[in-house]
Amino acid sequence: MNRKLIFAANWKMNKGPSETEDFLKSFLSKIQGQNFGSDIVIAPPFVSLSKLADVLHTRTAGANSPTIEIAAQNCSEHDSGAFTGEISVMMLREFFVHYVILGHSERRSLYGEVDAVINQKILKARDANLKPIFCIGETLAEREAGKLEAVLRTQISGGLHQVSEKDLSEIIIAYEPVWAIGTGVTATSEQAQDAHAFVRSVIADLYGADAAAKIRIQYGGSVKPGNAAELMACPDIDGALIGGAALDAQSFLEIIKNGSAQ
Ligand code: PEP
Fold it and tell me: What fold, for 6-260?
């Protein structure tokens, strides 16, 4: 199965509108005229979505220049109303957002998001035709206790509860071992490949072999220009979700370039 790679930058709480503009000026000039054959996505903080959308829509890209799509880092599971500080999926649509990161380990551990809430957000995102980047992953303690597969299976079946096969085809899974996020410690390509193959087998159990063969599974956790090629060469790894190394235009570009060459 030939799955298109997808490289997504998760900027977390970094880069307001002016830094977003600076990044884009540099990144767009670097990628001009290059086509990597991979999907490229940037997820800035909410307040920078408008700047990202404006710059991308007024950009005069060369015929061969890659498209960049916009992601949000979260969304509400509700439509509207008394939810102070929350942002709805329909609001995101107004900023030309096409993807939304859901279930990130920082949302789970710092903001108490459990599988049931993540599931409601995934369903809400699909109602608005947004593509969830659905994050899953185990802690070091869970891995060392031999619970890797049980944790991943629970997160997958909880997050995808009542998600149809049709909607699944618009979802990207990001396998992000918590111990590798922002730590500089990357899973070895063998550890990552094993986990990805397991995730694909769980999708096969839930949706069948065809859906499992089609779904894209990104790896996330200290991806850098130097390890992107080895990770992307693994048969079940279909791209990367990148935090720290995607804050710098040159480094994000090199990850895309090195990873896409696989
Ligand atoms: C992330 O936050 O999704 C992530 C993978 O971060 P980092 O690349 O910095 O480990």
Answer: TIM Barrel (3.20.20)
Instruction: Identify the bridge partners of residue 220 per DSSP, sorted by sequence position.
Output: 241
Q: At residue 159, does pLDDT exceed 80? A: yes
The Cα 23–Cα 184 span in angstroms is 23
Sign of the CA dihedral with 126 first, then 128, 131, and 135 last: negative
Lowest model confidence (mean pLDDT) among 58-67, 147-156, 200-209, 244-253: 58-67
CA distance linking residue 42 with residue 40, whole number of Å: 7
Active site residue 113: no
Check pLDDT > 90 for residue 59.
no
The catalytic position among 104, 113, 138, 196 is: 104
Residue 248: C-alpha distances to residues 5, 22, 56, 99 (Å): 20, 10, 18, 21
Output the pTM of the full model. Answer: 0.97
User: Does 96 score more than 90 pLDDT?
Assistant: yes
Q: Is 98 a catalytic residue?
A: no
Domain ranges (residues) in the chain: 6-260
Q: Which of 69, 113, 176, 254 is catalytic?
A: 176
Mean pLDDT of 45-61: 91
Using CA atoms, how far apart are residues 262 and 250, in angstroms rounded to an integer?
19
- How far CA 41 is from CA of 11, 66, 133, 151, in Å, comes to 11, 11, 11, 27
